[in-house]
Design goal:
The structure holds three protein chains of three kinds.
Chain A: H1 5-25, H2 28-41, E1 54-60, E2 69-75, E3 78-84, H3 97-100, H4 103-106, E4 116-118, E5 127-129, H5 132-148, E6 155-159, H6 165-177, E7 182-184, H7 188-200, E8 204-208, E9 215-221, H8 230-240, E10 245-249, H9 255-259, E11 262-264, H10 271-284, H11 290-296, E12 297-298, E13 303-304, E14 310-311, H12 314-319, H13 323-330, H14 334-346, E15 350-357, H15 365-377, E16 387-391, H16 405-412, H17 434-438, E17 449-453, H18 457-460, H19 464-471, E18 476-479, H20 486-489, E19 493-494, E20 505-508, E21 516-521, H21 534-545, H22 547-551, H23 558-566, H24 568-576, E22 578-581, E23 600-601, E24 634-639, H25 653-658, E25 664-665, E26 668-673, H26 675-681, E27 688-693, E28 696-704, E29 712-716, E30 755-761
Parallel strand pairs in A: 6-7, 6-17, 9-10, 9-15, 10-11, 12-23, 17-18, 18-19, 24-29, 26-28
Antiparallel strand pairs in A: 1-2, 2-3, 4-5, 4-19, 8-16, 13-14, 20-21, 21-22, 24-30, 25-26, 26-29, 27-28, 27-30
Helix pairs in contact in A: 5-21, 6-21, 7-15, 10-13, 10-14, 10-15, 13-14
Chain B: E1 13-18, H1 27-35, E2 55-60, E3 70-75, E4 102-103, E5 108-109, H2 121-125, E6 132-133, E7 160-161, H3 167-179, H4 193-197, E8 203-207, H5 214-218, E9 224-225, E10 237-240, H6 244-249
Parallel strand pairs in B: 1-10
Antiparallel strand pairs in B: 1-8, 2-3, 4-5, 6-7, 9-10
Chain C: H1 16-43, H2 58-69, H3 71-83, H4 89-113, H5 122-125, H6 132-156, H7 159-162, H8 165-201, H9 213-247, H10 254-289, H11 305-324, H12 326-330, H13 332-359, H14 375-398, H15 405-408
Helix pairs in contact in C: 1-14, 2-4, 2-13, 3-4, 3-8, 3-9, 4-6, 4-14, 6-8, 8-9, 9-10, 9-13, 10-11, 11-13
Classes of the chains: A alpha/beta, B alpha+beta, C mainly alpha.
The structure holds ligand MGD (2 copies), iron/sulfur cluster (SF4) (5 copies) and molybdenum atom.
One ligand MGD binds near residues 65, 187, 512 and 647 of chain A.
C-alpha cells in the first residue's frame, strides 16, 4: 500500500506511543528510576569516611597556655575527635571550644605546608616553595652576616610565651648568638608578677588558688572567658558552682558577670579606687588580719627609713578613699561598697583577682598592687585558697653555656624595648614599645632581623597598622608559624612549625594552677605536611652558625635535647604523660619574704629604690584615655569571648560558626551599645555605622545591649583577621587596629583599657 | 509508626540542662560538629542556613542597665514524644516518606538522610527549629575530609538533618553490652557528645524512666521545665532555672498567667 | 485532495501570524521559567530564598492556590454530571482544561520544590499514611490522571483527529462514560482538597495553623474542600471572561455564567460563615490555650489584622453577597468585581495558611521571620502561567471548547 506523508506521521506516532506504553510494562523504566535514586544516595562527591580500628591517644592541648589534657580518638590511625582527659589535673575533662576544634588546626586551608620564600612585595601573598635546606641556609647566612658585622643585638625574637623548654631553647639560642632582644607579649600576669615581686621580693609565676577559695572578688577578670586558662577555670566553675560566691566588678555584663552571684557595674578604669576603698572600710572597721599585718607585714602604718625620715604607710594611702568618695569615682553606691568590703573580709577563704577579660592586657601596676594588698589585708598570702608564688620552673637541666666576645658584647647592649632599664627596672618584656623603637629616624633601624616563633604580633598588637609600618622597616623577617597568620604572611621566609598534634613538647602548667605540673605533649599523627619542629629548626640554625653557638646545642634534635634536659622526669613523662613537682604553699606563720624588710611590704621599697618617685604606695589616678573628648564622645573597649580566639592563634572555622549573628554578620562586626546611647545617636538594632577612633576607622553594625554601660561601646577580640583562610579572613574588624597602647609610668606595661571613639550612622 | 512498645523495659532517653550553670561557652556546639561530621561554610552568620544540631541562644531579661540579666539556652532536638501514645512527634507524624521516625525502644527521633527527599514538611512542623536543611552540598576543604568520623554518614545536598542524641553512641554501647551478654546499659556507657563535652557539666543525660539515672530525679525538681510545653510536643529535654523570667521565656503565657503555678497539661509516659 | 482543516468548522480564528507572534511571546516567558527550573535542579535549592525557618514558601503557596482554583473542574463536573445541571455542559470543557492546567502545574512545582527530585517517588513507595502530604500526593496524581482522561475526548474532537474512525468512536464512547470519571474526580478531590487543609492544620507545633477537636477533623478538611468548590468556579468564570475579552467574542451564554456564579455565591457565603466560626473558636479557645492572643499573630507590619479582614470580609462576604443577589451577579461590573475578589480571597487564604504560618515566631524571644522569593522562585512560579496560556490558546484554536461559540458568533 502507498504511504503518504500524513499516514506515515500517523503510523510513526502510533508506533512511538505504543512503544512508550509497551516499555512502561517492561521493568526497564522502573529499574532505571530506582538506580537513579540509589545514585543520589551515593553521590561520588559525598565523602564516605574510612572505617578502621578505634584507638585513643592521650596528650596535651597547646592551643593556649592552659595546657589541658586531651584524649584523641583515632579510627584506623586517623584522628577523628578530641575530648578532655578526665584524669588530667589541669582541666579534669573540661575543654574550651578551641580545644574541641583542634582537628581544624591539624588539617585545613590555613596550614603552611612547606617552607616558603617571599616573591613579590611584603604581604602581597606571592610565595615560592623552597626546600628546608634552602630555608635554613638562607636564615643562617643572614644571621651569620649580622654577627660578622659585630651587631648580634640587632636580631630580635618575638615568642608567645617564655614558659617551657621550647621558648627556653630559643632564649638560649639568642644568648649564645648574642642578643638580649627576646620579646614576649605581656599579659595581666606580668603586672601581677611585678606587684608580687615588689611586695614579696619573689620572682615567679603567681598562683591564685581559685580551687580552694570560697569568695572570689574579680576586678574584671573573665574567669569564664579565658582568664587563667579556659579549660581549667571552666572546670573549677562547674565543680564549685554551689560552694563558691563570685562577685564580678566590670562595666559590661560579660558572661562571667552574667554567671556571677553578684555583678557590680563600675566606671571603667576605676578598679584601683574600688580596691583602695574596700581596704579603707576593712581597716576602719578593723576587719583585717591582725596577726598577718602585725607580724609579717611592713609599711602598714607610718615608718621611719634609714635616714630617719618618717614615711606614710598603707593606712595613710587608703585614708583618702572613704566609701562616699569612692562611690563618686566608681559609680557604685556607697552601701554596696561597704557591704562588699564586709563580705570579703568575713568570708572563710576570700580571694581578690584582676586582669581584664582573658588578661590579654597587663593594666597598670597600681591596680595589681591595690588588689594584691587587698588580699594581704585578709592575710591571704601563701596559703590555701590564697595567692602564692610558684618558683620559676627549673625542671629542665641545661648544661653551662659559654659565649664568645661578640655574644657577650651584644648581651650587654640595652634591650630595644627598654625593659629592665633604669626607667622600668622590674619589667621583663615591653613588646608594646617595640614599634616606637623601630621608628627611629634614618636607616639605623635597631633591629635588622626578626624571628617570630608562635606569636602573631601583626594581629595582636595594639594600633596594628602602625606596628605593621614599623615592622616593615626590619629588613629581614622570619616566621615559624604553622599557619598563614598575619605576621607569617608579612614575613620574608616561613619555616613552618608542626601543628600541636604533630609536635613533641613539654607543657608546664600555666599561670594559676596551684601545683607545678609538667605534661608532655606527644605527636598524635606523623607530620601531615613538609613542616619541622621549631626546636629542630633552631638547633640546625645553631649548627650552621658553628663555633660557640654550635657548642651550646650539642643535641642532634629537640627530642634528644628534651630527654637530656628532663633527666629523671623523662621516663615518668613518657610513661604517665605528666609529672607533678611539689608546690606546697608554706604553712601560715612561716612566711618567707625576700624583701629588704624580710616582710610583706605594703610599702614596696623595691619599687622606689629609696625615693618616693614614683610614689611607691598604690594610688588611684584615672587611667588616661587617648583621644579628644569633643570629637570622640564614646569610649570603645575590647572584650574577650570564649567562642573566639583573641590571641595569636586565630579561631578555627568551627569556632567562628558558633558566633552569634549579633556579633558578626557576613563581613561586618557588631559593636555593643546601650539602647539609651544608641537612641541619642539615632541608631537602631543592626544599623550600619562608621566607627572612628584616633587610631583608625571601620564600618560596623550596632547591637543594642542593655548589659553595657551607657557611653561605652564594646567589640570582641578575635575577628577581623586578614590572613589564615577564607573561613576567617576579612570577617569583621580587628579591634586591635582601633586601639592604642598607653605605657604605665611605673612599669611601662600597656595599661590602656579603651580608647575614645565616635559612631556615625551611614 | 505502629506501636511496638511491647517489651516493658523501653527507655526514654532525655536530657536535663541546668541553665543556672550554662556559661554559653559553645563547647557543646563544637563537640557536636566534630562528633557528627557537621559541615561548615565560609559564611555561617546567617543562622537560618547554618547547620547546628544544638544551638545556644542568648536571652536577656530586657531590664535596663545595670539590672540586666543574661541567660544562655542550649537547644538540641527535643526528641518530642508528642501527645497521646508517644511517637506522635510534630515532625515524625508529618514526614510523608518515613524518613524520620520514632524509636520506641529509646524514644529517640531518627533521621534517615538517604530516605529523605527534602520536602521540608518536618521543618514546618518543628516549633524548635531543630531541623536543618542542606541547602548546599557540604564541602570539606584542604584535607579536612581526613578527620570525618565513620560513625555518622556525611549528608548530601537536599536533605534534612538534626540532632540524633548521638544515636551511634547508643548503638556502640548496646553492641558492646550484647557481646558481654548484658541486657542493660550502665548510665555512663551511653552519653551524648554535648553532655560529655560541657566543661561545666550543665548537661545531664540518661534514661528518664530509670530511677537510678540522674535525670530521673532532676526532671521532677521544682525548678524544672520544658520549652513550649503548652503545645503538647512533650519534649524529652528538660531545663533547670532559678529565674522566673527565664522560665517565662521558655513558653508563651498570657499577661495574667504565672508559669510557676500552672500545671502542665501533658501527661508523663513511664 | 483538500485537507481537513485543523480549525473546527464554523468558527473564526485569528491569522497564523498573529497566533505565532502571541505564542512566541508566551513561550519566551515559559523558557525563562524553564531556565530557573533547571538552575534549581542542578544547583540545588540554594537558588531560592527559603531558609530553615521558611522551609515552606512561595512554591507551596502556588501549589495550594492552583489546586484551589482548579477546583472549578471537579465542582462543575459534579454539578454537570451528578447533580445534572445540563446548562453547565457549555462551560465544563473549559473548566476541565483549566483544572488540567492547574493540576499538572501543581505536580511540576512539587517536583522543583523538593530537595531530592530524583527521590520524589519515595512518597509513594515509602508512604507514611499518617502524613497529609502522602494523601495529597496520591489523590493529586490520581485526580490528574482523571482530568487527563476527561481532557482526551475533547482533544479527539479536533476535526482532523475526529476523521479517524477509531478515534472518533473512542471519543464518542468516552463521552458516554464521562459521568463515571467525573464522579471519581469529585471523590478524589474531596480527599486531597481536604488533606491540603490538613497540611497546615495538623501542625500542632505551630499555634497559628493548628486547629483542635472538630476544628481539625473534619473542619479544616471541610473548609478547604468547600472553599475550593466555592472559589474554583469563580476562577473558571474569570478565565472565561478574560478569554472572551481577548478573543473579542461571547463564548458562553449569560444564563450559564449566572447559574455558576449563583451556586458559587452560595458556596462562598456558607464557607465564609463556617470559616468565621472556625476563626472565632481558634482565637478564643485554641490560641489562648497555647498562650497566644489573637493579636500576637498579627503583630508584624506585613502580617497585620488587615489580612484577616481582607480574607474574611473583603474577599469573602462581599463577593459572596454580590453573587447570591440576582442584581449583583447580573450586573457585569459587580460580577467581575466579585469573581476577582473571590479569586484573591482564596489565594490569600492559602498564602496565609503557608507563609504566615512560617512567619509567626513561636518563641517569645524570636522575631518575626521574613522572606522574599528569589527570582528563580518567581520565574518557576510564572512558568505554569505561561504554560497555561499556551494550552488554553492551543485548545481554543483547535478544539470545540465552547459549544455555544458557533451560535453566539455566526460567520456568514
Ligand atoms: N592586643 C593583644 N595582645 C596580645 C593578645 C591579644 O589577644 N591581643 N594575646 C596575648 C596573649 S593572651 C598571649 S598568651 C600572648 C601569646 O599569645 P598566645 O595566645 O599565648 O599564643 P597562641 O595563641 O598560642 O599562638 C601561638 C602562635 O604560634 C603558632 N602556633 C602554631 N602551632 C601552634 C600551637 O599548636 N599552639 C600555639 N599556641 N601556637 C601555635 C601560631 O602562629 C600562633 O599564632 O600574646 C598576647 N598579646
Ligand atoms: N575560646 C578561647 N580560648 C582561649 C583564647 C581565646 O581567645 N578564646 N585565648 C587563648 C589564649 S591566647 C590565652 S593567652 C588563654 C588566656 O590565658 P593566658 O593568657 O594564656 O594565660 P594567663 O596570661 O596566665 O591568664 C591571663 C591572666 O589571668 C590571670 N590569672 C589567673 N590565674 C592566675 C594565676 O594564678 N596567676 C597569675 N599570675 N595570673 C593568673 C592573670 O591576670 C593572667 O595574666 O586562653 C586561651 N584560650
Ligand atoms: S583551654 Fe587552652 S589548652 Fe585547654 S582546650 Fe582550650 S585551648 Fe586547649
Ligand atoms: S557547653 Fe555547657 S556551658 Fe557551654 S554552652 Fe554548652 S551547655 Fe552551656
Ligand atoms: S524538636 Fe523538632 S525535630 Fe526534634 S522531635 Fe521535636 S519536632 Fe521533631
Ligand atoms: S524533608 Fe525529609 S524528613 Fe522531612 S518530611 Fe520531608 S522527607 Fe521527611
Ligand atoms: S545529642 Fe549528640 S547530636 Fe544531639 S546535640 Fe548533642 S551532640 Fe549533637
Ligand atoms: Mo594568649
Amino acid at each position: 500500500m502507498k504511504i503518504d506523508r500524513r499516514s506515515f506521521l500517523t503510523y510513526t506516532t502510533a508506533f512511538v506511543l505504543g512503544g512508550a506504553a509497551g516499555s512502561m510494562l517492561s521493568p526497564a523504566p522502573w529499574k532505571l528510576t530506582d538506580d537513579i535514586a540509589i545514585w543520589t544516595q551515593n553521590w561520588p562527591w559525598t565523602p564516605v569516611p574510612e572505617d578502621g580500628e578505634v584507638t585513643h591517644k592521650k596528650t596535651v592541648c597547646t592551643l593556649c597556655p592552659c595546657g589541658c589534657g586531651i584524649d584523641v580518638r583515632l579510627v584506623g590511625g586517623r584522628p577523628v575527635k578530641i575530648e578532655g582527659s578526665t584524669d588530667h589535673p589541669v582541666n579534669k575533662g573540661s575543654l574550651c571550644p578551641k580545644g574541641f576544634s583542634g582537628l581544624q588546626y591539624l588539617y585545613g586551608p590555613a596550614r603552611v605546608t612547606t617552607p616558603l620564600k617571599r616573591e613579590g612585595k611584603r604581604g602581597e601573598g606571592k610565595w615560592k616553595k623552597i626546600t628546608w635546606d634552602e630555608a635554613l641556609t638562607a636564615v643562617s647566612d643572614k644571621l651569620a652576616e649580622l654577627r660578622a658585622s659585630g651587631r648580634p643585638e640587632t636580631v630580635a625574637c618575638i615568642a608567645d610565651s617564655d614558659q617551657g623548654t621550647i621558648p627556653n631553647l630559643i632564649g638560649r639560642f639568642m644568648t649564645a648568638y648574642g642578643s638580649p632582644n627576646f620579646l614576649c607579649a605581656a599579659t595581666a600576669k606580668d603586672a601581677v608578677e611585678q606587684a608580687i615581686y615588689v611586695t614579696q621580693g619573689k620572682q615567679g609565676v603567681p598562683v591564685f588558688d581559685i580551687q580552694n577559695a570560697d569568695f572570689i572578688l574579680s576586678f574584671g577578670a573573665g574567669v569564664l572567658e579565658g582568664w587563667g586558662g579556659p579549660g581549667r577555670m571552666l572546670n573549677l566553675y562547674g565543680a564549685g558552682k554551689s560552694s563558691k560566691t563570685i562577685v564580678q566588678v566590670e562595666p559590661r555584663l560579660s558572661d562571667t558577670a552574667a554567671k556571677a552571684n553578684q555583678w557590680i557595674a563600675i566606671n571603667p578604669g576605676t578598679e584601683t579606687a574600688l580596691a583602695l576603698g574596700l581596704a579603707n572600710v576593712i581597716i576602719n572597721e578593723s576587719l583585717y588580719d591582725k596577726n598577718f599585718v602585725e607580724n609579717f607585714a611592713f609599711g602598714f602604718d607610718r615608718w621611719t627609713d634609714e635616714n630617719g625620715v618618717t614615711r606614710d604607710g598603707f593606712t595613710a594611702a587608703v585614708k583618702g578613699y572613704e566609701p562616699a568618695k569612692v562611690a563618686q569615682i566608681t559609680g557604685i553606691n556607697q552601701a554596696d561598697i561597704t557591704a562588699l568590703a564586709r563580705k570579703f573580709a568575713k568570708a572563710a577563704a576570700p580571694i581578690a583577682i584582676n586582669g581584664r577579660g582573658q588578661g590579654l592586657l597587663p593594666g597598670g601596676i597600681d591596680e595589681s598592687l591595690a588588689v594584691l594588698m587587698l588580699n594581704a589585708l585578709v592575710g591571704n598570702i601563701n596559703k590555701k585558697g590564697g595567692i602564692s608564688v610558684m618558683p620559676d620552673f627549673d625542671y629542665a637541666k641545661w648544661p653551662e653555656i659559654k659565649i664568645d666576645e661578640v655574644a657577650s658584647k651584644g648581651m650587654q647592649q640595652p634591650r630595644v624595648d627598654g625593659a629592665g632599664s633604669e626607667q622600668f627596672p622590674n619589667t621583663r618584656y615591653l613588646l608594646n614599645r617595640l614599634p616606637e623603637a623601630l621608628n627611629v629616624a634614618g636607616d639605623g633601624v635597631p633591629i635588622q632581623a626578626l624571628l617570630v616563633t608562635d606569636a602573631n604580633p601583626l594581629y595582636t598588637m595594639p594600633d596594628t597598622e602602625a606596628a605593621k609600618k614599623a615592622f616593615d622597616r626590619i629588613p629581614f623577617i622570619v616566621s615559624f608559624s604553622p599557619y598563614m597568620d598575619e605576621t607569617a604572611s608579612f614575613s620574608d621566609y616561613i619555616l613552618p612549625n608542626h601543628s600541636y598534634l604533630e609536635r613533641l613538647q613539654d607543657v608546664p602548667s600555666a599561670a594559676g594552677i596551684s601545683r607545678q605540673v609538667i605534661s608532655l605533649s606527644t605527636p598524635v599523627v606523623k607530620p601531615v605536611y613538609e613542616t619541622r619542629h621549631i626546636g629542630d629548626a633552631f638547633i640546625m640554625i645553631a649548627q650552621n652558625l658553628g663555633g660557640f653557638i654550635k657548642n651550646a646545642f650539642p643535641w642532634k634534635d629537640y627530642e634528644t635535647f628534651l630527654k637530656d634536659a628532663l633527666k629523671e622526669h623523662w621516663r615518668n613523662l613518657k610513661r604517665k604523660g605528666l609529672v607533678e613537682l611539689s608546690h606546697n604553699p608554706p604553712e601560715p606563720l612561716t612566711y618567707l619574704f625576700n624583701t629588704a624588710s624580710g616582710k610583706f611590704e605594703f610599702y614596696p621599697t623595691a619599687q622606689t629604690n629609696g625615693t618616693d618617685q614614683p610614689a611607691a604606695l598604690p594610688a588611684y589616678a584615672p587611667v588616661p584615655i587617648e583621644g579628644d573628648m569633643q570629637r570622640f564622645d564614646l569610649v570603645l573597649t575590647p572584650y574577650d569571648t570564649i567562642r573566639l580566639a583573641g590571641g595569636n592563634l586565630a579561631s578555627a572555622p568551627f569556632m567562628t560558626k558558633t558566633v552569634d549573628d549579633t556579633v558578626l554578620k557576613k563581613e561586618t562586626s557588631f559593636v555593643e551599645i546601650n539602647p539609651t546611647t544608641a537612641r541619642g545617636l539615632n541608631l537602631k538594632e543592626g544599623a550600619t555605622a562608621r566607627l572612628t577612633t584616633p587610631k583608625g576607622e571601620a564600618t560596623v553594625k550596632v547591637h543594642l545591649y542593655d548589659g553595657i554601660m551607657p557611653g561605652i561601646i564594646a567589640m570582641p577580640r578575635g575577628l577581623g583577621h586578614t590572613a589564615y583562610s577564607v573561613y576567617l579572613a576579612d570577617k569583621g574588624t580587628n579591634v586591635n587596629t582601633l586601639i592604642g597602647s598607653i605605657a604605665d609610668p611605673a612599669s611601662g606595661l600597656d595599661m590602656a583599657w579603651g580608647i575614645r571613639a565616635q559612631l556615625t550612622r551611614i | 509508626m505502629k506501636e511496638k512498645n511491647s517489651h516493658s523495659n523501653a527507655k526514654r532517653y532525655g536530657m536535663v540542662i541546668d541553665l543556672d550553670k550554662c556559661t554559653g561557652c559553645g563547647a557543646c556546639m563544637v563537640a557536636c560538629y566534630s562528633e557528627n561530621n557537621v559541615p561548615f561554610k565560609t559564611d555561617e552568620t546567617n543562622k537560618l542556613d547554618s547547620i547546628n544540631w544544638i544551638r545556644v541562644f542568648k536571652l536577656t531579661n530586657n531590664k535596663p542597665y545595670p539590672d540586666t540579666e543574661v541567660c544562655y539556652l542550649p537547644m538540641p532536638c527535643m526528641q518530642c514524644d508528642g501527645v497521646g501514645k508517644h511517637g506522635h512527634s510534630p515532625c515524625v507524624s508529618v514526614c510523608p516518606a518515613v524518613a524520620t521516625d520514632y524509636d520506641y525502644s529509646t524514644g529517640i527521633v531518627s533521621q534517615i538522610y538517604t530516605r529523605c527527599f527534602g520536602c521540608r514538611y518536618c521543618m514546618a512542623a518543628c516549633p524548635y527549629h531543630a531541623r536543618k536543611f542542606n541547602w548546599w552540598d557540604p564541602a570539606w576543604p584542604a584535607d579536612t575530609k581526613k578527620y570525618l568520623s565513620p560513625n555518622v554518614s556525611p549528608r548530601m545536598r537536599g536533605v534534612v538533618e538534626k540532632c540524633s542524641f548521638c544515636f551511634h553512641r547508643y548503638q556502640q554501647a548496646r553492641d558492646k553490652a550484647y557481646l558481654e551478654k548484658r541486657a542493660e546499659l550502665e548510665e555512663h556507657e551511653y552519653q551524648t557528645a554535648c553532655a560529655q563535652a560541657c566543661p561545666v557539666n550543665a548537661i545531664t543525660f540518661g534514661d528518664l524512666n530509670n530511677k537510678d539515672h540522674a535525670v530521673y530525679k532532676l526532671k521532677s525538681s521544682p525548678t524544672a521545665f520544658r520549652l513550649l510545653e503548652r503545645l503538647q510536643t512533650n519534649p524529652k529535654v528538660y531545663y533547670l532555672t532559678s529565674k522566673s523570667w527565664v522560665r517565662r521565656a521558655g513558653d508563651n503565657y498570657l499577661a495574667h498567667e504565672e508559669p510557676e503555678n500552672m500545671k502542665t497539661t501533658v501527661k508523663e509516659h513511664h | 485532495m483538500n485537507e481537513t482543516p485543523l480549525i473546527p468548522p464554523g468558527v473564526k480564528r485569528c491569522s497564523k501570524w498573529q497566533f505565532s507572534l502571541w505564542m512566541a511571546a508566551v513561550t519566551a516567558v515559559l523558557l525563562w521559567g524553564v531556565y530557573a527550573m533547571f538552575l534549581c535542579w542542578f544547583k540545588g535549592l540554594n537558588q531560592t530564598n527559603m531558609n530553615d525557618a521558611y522551609g515552606f514558601a512561595l512554591w507551596i503557596w502556588a501549589d495550594l492556590a492552583v489546586i484551589a482554583l482548579g477546583g472549578g473542574a471537579f465542582f462543575s463536573g459534579f454539578l454537570t454530571y451528578i447533580v445534572g445541571k445540563d446548562d453547565l455542559k457549555n462551560i465544563i470543557n473549559f473548566a476541565v482544561i483549566i483544572g488540567f492546567i492547574c493540576y499538572s502545574s501543581a505536580l511540576l512545582i512539587l517536583a522543583i520544590d523538593i530537595g531530592q527530585p530524583l527521590r520524589g517517588w519515595f512518597i509513594f513507595w515509602h508512604a507514611n499514611v499518617h502524613s497529609m502530604l502522602t494523601e495529597v500526593a496520591f489523590c493529586l496524581s490520581c485526580y490528574f490522571a482523571v482530568l487527563t482522561i476527561e481532557f482526551i475526548p475533547l482533544i479527539l474532537e479536533n476535526p482532523r483527529l475526529d476523521k479517524k474512525p477509531f478515534l472518533h468512536h473512542l471519543s464518542h464512547n468516552m463521552h458516554g462514560i464521562m459521568a463515571v470519571f467525573a464522579a471519581t474526580g469529585v471523590f478524589l478531590s474531596f480527599f486531597h482538597q481536604g488533606s491540603l487543609g490538613g497540611v497546615a492544620g495538623v501542625l500542632f507545633g505551630r499555634p497559628f495553623a493548628y486547629r483542635e477537636h472538630i476544628f481539625i477533623w473534619p473542619f479544616t478538611f471541610f473548609l478547604f474542600t468547600w472553599s475550593a468548590a466555592a472559589y474554583g468556579p469563580c476562577f473558571t468564570i474569570l478565565v472565561t471572561k478574560i478569554t472572551e475579552k481577548i478573543t473579542g467574542k461571547k463564548l458562553v451564554k449569560d444564563n450559564v455564567i449566572h447559574l455558576l456564579a449563583k451556586i458559587s455565591g452560595w458556596m462562598i457565603i456558607t464557607y465564609i460563615i463556617a470559616k468565621t466560626a472556625d476563626t472565632i473558636y481558634w482565637a478564643v479557645v485554641t490560641a489562648p490555650n497555647a498562650g497566644f492572643t489573637l493579636m500576637d499573630f498579627y503583630a508584624s507590619p506585613t502580617y497585620n489584622i488587615g489580612i484577616l479582614f481582607a480574607e474574611i470580609v473583603l474577599c469573602g462576604f462581599i463577593p459572596g453577597l454580590i453573587l447570591i443577589t440576582k442584581r449583583g451577579r447580573e450586573n457585569p461590573l459587580l460580577l467581575t468585581t466579585a469573581i476577582i475578589l473571590a479569586v484573591i480571597g482564596v489565594s490569600l487564604n492559602r498564602w496565609v495558611m503557608v507563609l504566615q504560618v512560617m512567619a509567626v515566631p513561636v518563641f517569645s524571644f524570636n522575631n518575626w521571620y521574613t522572606y522574599l522569593p528569589s527570582w528563580q522562585e518567581v520565574a518557576t512560579t510564572v512558568l505554569p502561567v505561561a504554560y497555561g496560556l499556551i494550552v488554553i490558546s492551543l485548545a481554543y484554536r483547535y478544539l470545540p471548547v465552547f459549544p455555544q461559540e458557533k451560535e453566539l458568533n455566526p460567520i456568514d
